[in-house]
Structures are given as C-alpha cells and as structure tokens.
Automatic annotation (TrEMBL):
PANTHER family: 2,3-DIKETO-L-GULONATE TRAP TRANSPORTER SMALL PERMEASE PROTEIN YIAM, SLL1102 PROTEIN. The keyword Ribosomal protein does not apply. InterPro entries: DctQ, TRAP_DctQ. Belongs to the TRAP transporter small permease family. This is TRAP transporter small permease subunit. It comes from Flammeovirga agarivorans. It comes from the Bacteria. The chain crosses the membrane at residues 21-40, 89-115, 135-156. It is found in: Cell inner membrane.
Length: 169
C-alpha cells in the first residue's frame, strides 16, 4: 500500500474514532433530555436539535471510515462469488463511476449551502434553538471530501490488487 493511501486511511480512522466518541456524549445528552423532560418537566428545542446535530455528525463523519473498513452496503452474496480480480474491477468501476461523481456533486452543491448559512449567520427558527447552523452544515462537504479521499485510497488499493494479480505467473 502506498503512503498516500496510508495517510488517507489514518486520517479517516482518526476522524471516525473521534466521531464515534460523540456517541458517548449523545447518550449522555439524551439521558439528560429524557430525565429533564420526565422528572422536571424541562426541555428545550436547543437540546433536541443538538441531539440531531450530533447524530448527523456521527453518521457523516463515520461514512469514510466505514468505507475504509469495507463495511459499507453492498450485495455481498453476489460480490463474494467473484474472483479477487473481478472484485477489484467491480470496485474500481464503482469508485470511478458512482462514488466519485456522487461525492463531487454533493461537495459542489453543499459548499454554497454552508457559505450561505455562514454569511447570514443562520440559526434555528425554533424559540430556544441553536445558533450557528453553518457548523452542522459544514459537516456535509467535509464528510464527502473525506469520503472522496477514502474512495481514492480504495481505488489505489484495488489497482494494486489488479497489478499483483496480473504480475503473478
């Protein structure tokens, strides 16, 4: 594996682990919210929104790590029947014609969305809601940039698989 792939993998592993730690915070926040609501009749829109924002960050920032771990959704019943060479060809095709264009499309569409939210200092429309909506919205292009990078790492790995497969007698 080349050093670019190793660096991308390490980056996504580190970010994925950090995002996973948000799960502990989310659990504590939900417990606080539920306890406050049922024991003290206390709840705010900000707490509910924060729960959804953290959940979104966990999901978005772990997607590249999920690809790194090869745990993404795929029809394994069919895929596993193919030889390593054909699996590599399928993966290369998928990265080039599905993952890469989709990531570029989402990045291109989401950056103006984030810039607009930042420019107007968008906040929740709910009373007691959260300010600085651009923070959560910025997770969208960041996660898709990381997913695109992980796709490049995956592509390099599969190209190496093809090279190894064709160079062996």
């Amino acid at each position: 594996m080349n050093t670019l792939s190793q660096k991308i993998n390490l980056l996504n592993k580190t970010i994925g682990q950090a995002a996973s730690l948000l799960t502990i915070f989310l659990i504590a926040l939900v417990c606080f919210d539920v306890g406050g609501r049922y024991l003290f009749n206390f709840s705010t829109a900000g707490i509910s929104e924060l729960e959804w924002h953290i959940f979104g960050c966990i999901f978005l920032l772990n997607a590249p790590n999920t690809l790194r771990l090869n745990k993404h959704v795929r029809v394994d019943a069919i895929y596993n029947q193919f030889s390593p060479k054909n699996q590599a060809l399928i993966d290369i095709f998928g990265v080039l014609f599905f993952l890469t264009p989709f990531c570029i499309l989402v990045i291109d569409a989401s950056i103006p969305y984030v810039i607009n939210a930042y420019t107007i200092m968008e906040k929740s429309t709910d009373p007691g809601g959260l300010p600085f909506r651009f923070i959560i919205k910025s997770c969208i292009p960041i996660s898709f940039i990381l997913l695109l990078l992980q796709g490049i790492s995956h592509l390099l790995s599969k190209l190496q698989t093809l090279k190894d497969y064709t160079s062996t007698p």
